[in-house]
Amino acid sequence: MTYLKWLLAVLGLSTVLATGMVASADADYDQALKTAPQGISLDNIFVPGTTSNNQAAIVNTTNPNITGTQAAKVNNGKKQFSALWSTTDNHFDLTKNMKSSMWMYFGNTGKKAADGMALVFQNDARGLAATPTYGKTVSGETLGVWGVDTDKKQTTPDKLASTAIQNSWALEFDTHLNTSTNYGNTGDADSFDVGISGPHIASNYPGEVSTYEMVRTSTLLPIYSVGYYATQTHAGTITGDYTMLSNGAWHHLTIDWQASTKQMTYTFDDKDPNTGKKQTGKSASVTLDTTKIDPNNTGQVRWGFTGATGDSYENNLVIFEEIPGLVEVDANATLTDMTQNKVVDNDGTVKGGDKVRLDYQLSYEGGKQEWKDVVAQLKLPSKLSFTKGTITYADGTSTAVGLDSERQLTVKLAKALSSSNQTATISFTGTADGVTEPASVTGLTSTFTAVNGVETVSTVDFTLNPTQEVLLASLNGTTFSADDGDVTVKGSVVVPDSTNLKNTDITVKSTLNGRAQADFKIPESDDNESGRFDYTVKPNQLTAGDNTLIITVADPYGNESNPLKVTITLTGQVLFNGVAEASSFQSTTLTGSQQQVKRGNDWQVNVLDTRTAGATWTLQVSATAFTTKDGRQLAGGLYFHDDTGKTAVTTTPMNIASGQSTSNDDEKDIVSDWQDETGLLLDVGSASVSGQYQSQLTWTLNDTP
Fold first, then answer.
1. What count of other Cβ atoms lies within 10 Å of the Cβ of residue 567?
2. CA–CA dist 588, 368 (Å, integer)
């Protein structure tokens, strides 16, 4: 009897010890499961590896706000090896473009975290039993996939590479730096990260000799000895500080495999862990040598997560949203301002009071399974009041969606999405709220959940602008004549006092005879005449007869004024349309001989003819003598050169050009027709004295019969 009591006590003690070892969870582990993001069930998709020391498991999450989500528990204790592998039916297909997205958790211990985990693709002959070849102790440095560096005498990495998971490629998430380099630490599996400055994401081939390098080191005391430690080559590295991984937050990862280029792109932190909204994240790409992970060219590779810990640990968990090849779906959200007939871009605008439509478009793009029993957790943007909701499927059927005032709706799709019914669009129509000043509206993330796939999509950030009346009037009339030159319309803008708009907030838009003119902002006002502006039209912009100018103004919120119609009449005439106020000849050094001085670049004489076809004109020029300020006259003079020779220009007008109207508002650039040796040139005589000389030119334009 005494013996029996003793045996029961031992058995009871054994039970307590076993239970304590399995639980080995902590508050951080519990908190991670309570705050887990929405994911999918992993049943029949991933299974724990079959090695006897494997501690990995599929666990249920405890977040009450999500459903049907399981997590892959990689590590949650010291001195663990862990591996979870895809089932045979869910191998990764290297011959097709594949995409997967997931959430990852690395604990909350920051710099004390160890050791991380690895996403591994492998065709190791051991299959579900693939593991590094450990001795008596699991090495955290291996992350459950890399070679085991425990022999300080190995001078080449051949043996080291052979201890890794073979025919594999690994993407590591390393939270703990292994940087020992002295002799005393050779062969202690703690040198892979030499040269790396912090936690990092990187990749390479664990079973390849080229992934490692043996480094020689030595010691003099107590006796001279030589040893070797191994470093690891990191490819496609993404680095950060100690808050990058083990910071108590879930981190999103997307991997994208392009079969044609054999390029794997991994993007980390591409979703906000609090809102689920997509963000830029950190990304890297590597080109894979598939012969190293698929030497038999099967096109298939087993994939999953591995981990290993030593004397320290962190909680490592993975939740999947999308399993490649299982079900491939896409989701988009589009907000349309129906009144303005425009799709609202991110950081775009919507006007208060406008009719709006919000569409969530779900698309089935392929996969082994249909996407069924989809539950949409919708978060509708603020400042938009929706009155109607519908779900429309690709087969043409539709159902109504009930609305409530909470802006958070749970909607279950009545039909599965598949190759025969590929799309579903959830649409809401309503009106943008009225506002008196601009209001920023932040986009919200909605989740579409099924047991085999999760998609999230965010609405755009936008600004809701007030709708208000903007009035435009002319202070000097709406009918003008351009026969005497430029026409200036004096505009006046009135906006509601509550907006506090400035002149420079208002944009002036216009068309002249149906052609759009350049927009401009009203300039700042120095005399407190807010909303006043001048709009000038030059004769060369007009055609003979009546011209129609339409002016509107717009505030920064997209509100546009009434159109101001202005009629400008231009009687057919010939006139100067630009004459330089002053022109020059090039500076010249006198040589004591006869010289010809060429024109400078500041000559301009333009003639505009708006008369009916056939009318003619002539241009004349006359000039005074060239003299200095003190009255000394230049020994020489101004001459007009053409094909017939040269003619002196005097105070008597002489013809130098003529033209004929074609009724197309002809403009003639007189100077552009002159060559270097033709037109007006200055002749300087041998007796000329140095100085600055000037003359007054008179241009005469004649409307000839």
1. 13
2. 88
Residue 511 or 220, more confident: 511
Q: What angle do CA 151, 152, 153 make, to 5 degrees?
A: 90
Determine the Cα–Cα distance for residues 572 and 498; give it in Å rounded to an integer.
Answer: 48
Q: Say if CB 638 and CB 603 are below 8 A apart.
A: no
Judge whether residue 21 has pLDDT over 60.
no
Give the model's confidence band at 485: pLDDT under 50 very low, under 70 low, under 90 confident, else very high: confident
The answer to whether the peptide bond before residue 222 is cis (omega within 30 degrees of 0) is yes
Residue 25 pLDDT greater than 90, yes or no = no
Question: What token pair was written down for 330?
Answer: 């896409």
The rounded radius of gyration (Å) of the Cα atoms in the chain is: 41
27 phi and psi, to 5 degrees? -60, -35
Residue among 142, 115, 140 at smallest CA distance from 315: 115
CA–CA distance, 202 with 284 (Å, rounded to integer): 9
Question: What was the pLDDT predicted at 141?
Answer: 94
- pLDDT, mean of residues 467-472: 94
- Look up residue 540 and give its amino acid: N
Contacts of 686 (CB under 8 A, 6+ apart): 592, 593, 594, 635
pLDDT at res. 493: 95
**Element at 23 (helix H, strand E):** helix 2-23
The pLDDT value given to residue 572: 80
- At residue 95's C-alpha, the angle toward residues 91 and 96, to 5°, is 85
Asked if residue 226 lies in contact with residue 200, where contact means CB atoms within 8 angstroms, the answer is: no
Confidence bin at 17 (pLDDT 50/70/90): very low
Peptide bond into 174 cis (omega under 30): no
Identify whether the C-beta of residue 69 lies closer than 8 Å to the C-beta of residue 32. Answer: no
Beta strand pairing status for 70-75 and 316-322?
antiparallel
- Name the residue with tokens 């299982």: 326
The single-letter DSSP state of residue 36 is P
Q: pLDDT, tens digit, for every residue of 532-543?
A: 999 999 988 988
Confidence bin at 2 (pLDDT 50/70/90): very low
**Minimal CA–CA distance to 140: which of 351, 390, 310?**
310
What is the b/e burial string over 591-627, where b = at least 16 CB atoms within 10 angstroms of the residue's CB?
eeeebebebeeebebbbbbbbeeebebbbbbbbeebe
Share of the chain above pLDDT 70, in %: 95
Q: How many other C-beta atoms can be found within 10 angstroms of the C-beta atom of residue 652? A: 9
Nearest to residue 409, comparing CAs of 360, 476, 354, 470? 360
Tell me which amino acid residue 637 is.
G
Give dist(CA 106, CA 315) in Å, integer: 6
Q: Which residues pair with 508 in a beta bridge?
A: 520, 553
CB atoms within 10 A of CB 182: 12
Q: What is the 3-state secondary structure (H, E, C) of 517-555?
A: CCCEECCCCCCCCCCEEEEEECHHHCCCEEEEEEEEEEC
Burial class (CB in 10 A: 0-12, 13-18, 19+), 216: exposed
Confidence of residue 22 (pLDDT cuts 50, 70, 90): very low
pLDDT at 610: 79
Q: Which stretch of 73-77, 94-98, 263-267, 554-558 has the lowest confidence by average pLDDT?
A: 554-558
The one-letter code for the residue type at 627 is T
Nearest to 226 by CA among 323, 152, 147, 117: 152
Query: What are the residues whose beta carbons fall under 8 Å from the beta carbon of 696, sequence distance 6 or more?
Result: 623, 624
Query: Would you state the pLDDT for residue 529?
Result: 64
In tens, the pLDDT along 249-302 reads 999 999 999 999 999 999 999 999 988 999 999 999 999 999 999 999 999 999
Taking every pair of C-alpha atoms in the chain, what is the biggest distance, in angstroms? 148
